[in-house]
């Protein structure tokens, strides 16, 4: 069965927010990736400020949940405000499960990033469903239960 986790979007303070959440919930970050660490940042002509922003951060909360987030970058042209600053992240049990969930949620909606193999080793895609809810579908065999 797929697992669901909240994924928050910030304009430029994801790291600050997650240090706060870490002080509240405890634990250690499972991942901290910056835009400057990813491939293509030179082709995207990211500013130094955008390169330093959080591309992905994850904080396990309890035994079964992971709070995750990223910052928006100027190059994407996207900003987030209250009400559109979150997605639901689905961690699939297999590639087939990821395909099934992604296709089901995309029916009548729009893909914002097709399911594909990523540089971080996962099979990942993003979409907005027909009701305007943002979803991220991820399968990473290293973490599948």
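Sequence proposed for the structure above (145 residues):
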């Amino acid at each position: 069965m797929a697992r669901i986790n909240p994924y928050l979007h910030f304009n430029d303070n994801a790291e600050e927010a997650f240090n706060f959440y870490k002080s509240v919930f405890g634990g250690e970050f499972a991942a901290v990736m910056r835009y400057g660490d990813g491939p293509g940042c030179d082709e995207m002509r990211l500013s130094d400020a955008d390169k330093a922003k959080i591309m992905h951060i994850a904080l396990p909360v309890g035994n079964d949940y992971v709070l995750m987030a990223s910052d928006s970058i100027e190059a994407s042209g996207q900003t987030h405000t209250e009400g559109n600053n979150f997605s639901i992240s689905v961690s699939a049990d297999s590639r087939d499960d990821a395909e099934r969930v992604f296709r089901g949620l995309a029916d009548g909606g729009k893909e914002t990033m097709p399911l594909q193999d990523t540089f971080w080793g996962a099979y990942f895609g993003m979409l907005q469903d027909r009701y305007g809810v943002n979803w991220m579908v991820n399968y990473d065999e290293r973490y599948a239960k």
